Amino acid sequence: MLKRLKRDYMNNRRITGTSLQPTVFLSLLFVFFGVIVGRIFWLQVIEGSRYRQLSAQNRIRLVARSPIRGRLLDRKGRVLATNKLIYNLYLEPRLLEDTSWPALRDRLSKLLNISKSDLQSRFQKGFSKDPYRITLATNLSTDQILRFREQSLNFNSVQVDVDVLRYYPHGGLASHVLGYTQLITEDEYQYLSSKGYKIRDRIGRIGVEAAFEKHLRGEWGGQMLEVDAMGVVQRSLGEKASVAGKDLVLTIDLDLQRAAEKALEKKRAGAIVVLDPRDGAIRAMASKPSFDPNFFSKFFTSQKEYDKLFFSSLKPLFNRALNAYDPGSTWKAVTAMAGMESRKFPPDVKLETTSCINYGAHCFPDHNRRGFGTIGYEDALSFSSNTFFYQVGVGVGAKAHYEAAKKLGFDSLTGLELVYEESSGLVGNEKWAEDGRGWGKPGTTPWIPEDMASASIGQAVVQVTPLQLARAYAVFANGGYLVTPHLVDGNVDWTGLQKRKKVDIKPSTLNTIRRGLRKVVLSGTGAPININDFPAIAGKTGTAEDSSGGSDHAWFVCFTPFTSSEIVVVAFAQNTPGGGSVHALPMARQVLQSWWEMKKP
Question: How far apart, in Å, are the Cα atoms of 515 and each of 20, 121, 315, 349, 378?
Fold first, then answer.
C-alpha cells in the first residue's frame, strides 16, 4: 500500500513538473542578479567616466571668459584697432518661471528706461538662439549699471556682465586693410570648436583681421563655480585666466593713410596704393567706397542694415586696390620693355606716329587724332603716343609682350598677406585666347591682330590691380628689383633673395624707361604733378576705356626721389572720365605733399 502511494506521488510530480521548480527559480534568480551586476559594471566601469562628468556638470558651471584680441598698430605704434569693455544685461531663462517674464520685463523697463518692446523682441530672438543666456540690452550707461546694482538682489535671474568689443577708433579709415570681426556661424563652430573657439566667439572676416586671426585671437579662460540644484552659486572651484592675443604692427602709416583717404573723398570710387619700392612695405592702401568696421561689432543688427551694406550697388566691402581694371597708358612702360628686351625695337629706335593705324578690320587711333611725328621711346612715353606703342606691341608679338609683363609681376598674385582677396589680373596672350578667353569654347576665340594692338596700350585684354601696378613701377624706381608687397614686417628679411628678386632686364632698357617716365613729368602729360621745392618725380598718366562697359578710368603712377626712390604712389579713379592727368594726378599729388611734410624736420 505504502509503496503504491509513493509510486503514485512520484508519477504525479513528474506530470506536474514540481521537481523542476527549484532549478527554474535558481536560474531566474541567477539571470536577474546577472543583469543587475552587468548593469552596474556598465555604469561604473565602462561608462563610469562619462557619467561622472555628467554628474559634475549638474553641479559645476564653467563661466567662460573671452580673450582680449590683439591690437592693430600702425608702423609708429598708433592704434588702428583695439578693444573696449562694455556692460550688457543678460537673462538666464532656467532661473525664471514662464509666467514671471512679463512682470520682470516691466520692472526692468522702468528701472533701466528701456522700452518693453525692445526687451520683448530680444527675449524672443535670444531664446531661439541660446536658451541658457539671453542678451537683453547692450552697452549700458554708467547710470543704468548703478541703478541695476542697487536693485540686483531683486533680480536673481538677471545679471549685468562685462563684455569685450572690437573697436576701430578711426571708423572707416583703412577698413579694407584692417577688415572686421564677426560672430562665428553654427556651421563654422562645428569645426572651429576643436581649435578652442566658443559659440559666442568672433573671428576675423577680411583684411588683416582674417589673415592674422591665429596671431590676434588669444585663448579663452573661465571660472569654475559649484552650484546647487537651483543653480545658486555655492563657491568658486578655481579660475583659468584667458590669454590675450598678440598685438600686430602694420607697415601702414596713419598719416599717409589719412592723406590717401582724403584724396579719394570727392571720387565716386577708386583706390590709392603707397608702396616703399625698396622693400615692398605698404604705407597706405585706400579703397572707396569704404565701410565702418564697427558696424560688425554691434550685438544686434537688423536685416535691413545688413542688406544695405552687402547688397549696395556701390559695393563698399569690395577692395578696389586688389581688384583688376584696364590700366590704359600706364601699361606703355611694359610694352616699351617688351620692345627693347626682344631686340626688335632697341632703345634708340625712332618710329613715325600717325593719326591711326589699321589692324584687322579696325583703324586704331592716336589720342590726339594726328600723331606726334617721328619719335623715340622717351617722347612716346612723354606724349603717351598710342600709334608708337601699337607698332612696338604688334611688332614684338604676344609672347614677348607676355614675358615682359610676367617679369614685372603681372598675371599673378603679388605675395600680399591678403591672398584670398587679391585678383591675379589678366594679360591676354595666344594660349589664353585659344583656351576660350575664360568665357568661350576652346578653339573658337583665336588671338587676332586687334587683340595685340589693344594689349599694347593696356586695353580690353589687359587688366591689372593698383597694387600690381605699384609693384611693377617699383622695379623702375629701385633699379630693377621685384619686391613683395606686405602689410606686416614681422621677422622677415624683405630685401632678401626670397622676397626681392632681380629682374632680368638690360640696363639700357631700364634706363630708357626711367628717362621716359621722368620726361612725362618734366614736359609731358604728368607735368602738373611737379611741386615746388620737391624731389624729382617720374611717373605716367593713364586713361583707360572700361572693357566692362562703364565710363573711362583715370590712372596716375609715380615715384620719387628719382635718383633713389623712397615711395611709389598709384592713384586710380574708377569710371571717372576726363583723363588721368585731370582726375588721378591731383590725388597722387595730395599724397606726395603729405609724405613730404612728414619728412621735413
Answer: 117, 68, 39, 15, 6
Query: What are the E-state strand segments in 168-227?
Result: 181-183, 202-204, 221-227
> What is the model's pTM?
0.84
Q: pLDDT, tens digit, for every residue of 385-431?
A: 999 999 999 999 999 999 999 999 999 999 999 999 999 999 999 99
Helix (H) or strand (E) holding 402: helix 386-407
The answer on pLDDT for 57 being more than 50 is no
Q: Is the pLDDT of residue 2 over 50?
A: no
Contact yes or no for 210/202 (Cβ under 8 A): no
- CATH ID of 61-249, from 3.30.70.270, 3.90.1310.10, 3.40.50.10490, 2.60.120.620: 3.90.1310.10
Element (H, E) at 39: helix 21-41
- The cell for 64 is 567662460
Fold of 254-298+319-599: Beta-lactamase (3.40.710)
Q: What angle do CA 266, 297, 194 make, to 5 degrees?
A: 130
Q: What's the rounded Cα separation, in Å, for the pair 376 and 347? A: 8
Q: Give the mean pLDDT of 244-254.
A: 96
